[in-house]
């Protein structure tokens, strides 16, 4: 009898606890903690007055310089992306506060995809201070392990370690800003195959790249370049290390080149540690990772925009 009474009390206690939990609100709620007013509506109003009304402050030419596209293309992208992903649609949060406008959310993305000449000059000045005039970043590739790769695609995406992976190509600066990202190539390929498919040199081939002039060893150059590892071709756009340095000068150059080339590896390390985007990257790290390629040139999801 005693044991039965104990069991009944336990059942009653559990039922009461479940009822209390079901009635308890989860997530954001008014009154729990004071929210920081970021003036999102005021900033959204200013944004519309600057770019999105017939009498906007800035012209279509200014809009294109700022966001690297015409207003009609921006509107089409916004319409399509709102239909594809509900995140970009304006809606209320758990506290009933109206969120950001679709234009505000999309512009946050576009600004990351549209680096400015001021940012480029900042990169060049920092590179010159580090002893690499004309260098705008480090390029590399790494394998992103594809855990749930479909059976039909496993043959193409199996790398030399018999793992299913997708190759990630990227260009990153000294402060881990990602300026170029290209993602999606099958893991059975290598850095050179990826380079042949990525858009990293599209502007250069079209003659639309920025004008850069610098001097090294009394020779004037006009071509920007990236620090790269030994697998890349001997192009003027790549500066690679010296495999077997002999003189003190060569050893010093190899040390600095290999050290600064780790900028892009550090970038992926941050992504992996902070957002768990690149799983299995640590194993690839020690070999040589990192070039990315998503679309164009990123300002980095972790830094100021121009």
Describe it for me?
This protein has 306 residues and is of the alpha/beta class. It has two domains: 74 residues, no CATH class; 169 residues. Helix content is 41%, strand content 13%. It has eleven helices and seven strands. A hairpin with a 5-residue loop joins β2 and β3. The radius of gyration is 26 Å and the shape is globular.
What key phrases describe this protein's structure?
306 residues; alpha/beta; 2 domains; five-stranded mixed sheet; 11 helices; globular
Number of strands: 7
Residues in β-strands, percent: 5-15%
Secondary-structure element sequence?
HHHHHHEEEHHEEEEHHH
* Mean pLDDT over the full residue set: 77
Which secondary structure elements does this structure contain, and how are they paired or packed?
Blueprint: H1 2-23, H2 40-52, H3 60-67, H4 71-84, H5 102-112, H6 117-129, E1 135-145, E2 165-172, E3 178-186, H7 191-197, H8 202-205, E4 214-216, E5 219-221, E6 225-228, E7 238-240, H9 248-260, H10 262-275, H11 281-285
Parallel strand pairs: 1-6, 6-7
Antiparallel strand pairs: 1-2, 2-3, 4-5
What does this entry show, briefly?
This protein is of the alpha/beta class.
């Amino acid at each position: 009898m005693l044991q039965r009474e104990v069991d009944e009390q336990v059942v009653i206690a559990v039922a009461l606890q479940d009822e209390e939990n079901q009635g308890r609100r989860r997530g954001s709620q008014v009154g729990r903690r004071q929210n920081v007013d970021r003036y999102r509506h005021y900033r959204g109003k200013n944004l519309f007055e600057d770019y999105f009304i017939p009498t906007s402050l800035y012209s279509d030419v200014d809009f294109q310089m700022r966001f690297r596209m015409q207003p009609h293309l921006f509107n089409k992208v916004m319409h399509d992306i709102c239909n594809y992903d509900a995140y970009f649609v304006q809606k209320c949060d758990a506290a009933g506060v109206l969120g950001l406008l679709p234009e505000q959310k999309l512009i946050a993305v576009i600004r990351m995809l549209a680096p400015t000449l001021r940012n480029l000059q900042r990169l060049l000045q920092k590179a010159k201070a580090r002893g690499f005039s004309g260098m705008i970043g480090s390029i590399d590739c790494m394998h992103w392990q594809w855990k749930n790769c479909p059976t039909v695609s496993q043959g193409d995406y199996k790398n030399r370690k018999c793992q299913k992976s997708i190759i990630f190509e990227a260009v990153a600066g000294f402060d881990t800003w990602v300026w170029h990202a290209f993602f999606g190539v099958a893991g059975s390929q290598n850095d050179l195959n990826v380079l042949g498919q990525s858009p990293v040199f599209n502007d250069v081939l079209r003659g639309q790249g920025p004008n850069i002039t610098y001097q090294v060893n009394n020779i004037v150059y006009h071509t920007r370049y990236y620090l790269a590892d030994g697998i890349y071709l001997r192009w003027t756009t790549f500066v690679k290390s010296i495999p077997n340095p002999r003189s003190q000068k060569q050893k010093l150059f190899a040390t600095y080149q290999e050290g600064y080339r780790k900028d892009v590896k550090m970038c992926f390390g941050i992504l992996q540690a902070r957002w768990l985007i690149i799983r299995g990257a640590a194993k690839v790290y020690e070999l040589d990772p990192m070039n990315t390629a998503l679309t164009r040139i990123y300002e980095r999801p972790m830094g100021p925009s121009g």
